[in-house]
Amino acid sequence: MITIIAGTNRKDSYSLKVAKYYQKQLDLKGYGSEVISLESLPDNFIVSDLYGARSDAFQSIQDRITTSTKFVFIVPEYNGSFPGVLKTFIDSCLFPDSFVGKKAALVGISSGKYGNIRGVEHFTGVCHYLNLHTLPLRIHIPYIKQELNDELDFFKEDTLRFTDQQISAFIAF
Ligand SMILES: Cc1cc2nc3c(=O)[nH]c(=O)nc-3n(C[C@H](O)[C@H](O)[C@H](O)COP(=O)(O)O)c2cc1C
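YS: structure for the whole thing
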């Protein structure tokens, strides 16, 4: 099972919109996937789900992570890196069952100029520490607010081509 993780808990995030776009494209290629938005984390998860604690609400997310073998992370740029809530989520997930030995594709997005090049690099380091194998083709999408049409699909020729290449490569990975 492929799970797409929208890497922020910000409401109305572009990360979730991009996650849904990836889900739609995987579907068109015949691969089912699930989206987990960090918005669905329990409000108090830094208390209820860190350091061995586990709430029922988080457990159902944990079960979906445990049974997934491939992940797409949509990683927004927050202060020149990936969001703290994404790292806290990773820290809350069961080790080693969650990510060790599995595979991931990384997509950086930002409202600014760089498409989270640095944050995806930082997050790649965390993935490698976890022995979560990352697809070498990482995608960076700057100026994300100009990238989606009314149907919330990408429409620019280069974005369509690069994301399609990444999705095909990830299916084969
Ligand atoms: C706390 C915070 C920090 C941010 N820092 C940056 C930044 O360093 N560079 C940038 O281009 N955009 C930055 N942004 C804007 C995000 O890139 C923007 O919200 C974009 O839509 C992707 O994030 P989203 O999934 O929250 O929508 C920041 C946004 C937040 C909420």
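YS: worth flagging: Helices lie at 14-28, 45-48, 56-67, 84-92, 117-129, 157-172.
IM: good catch. Also Residues 2-172 form a domain with the Rossmann fold fold (CATH 3.40.50.360).
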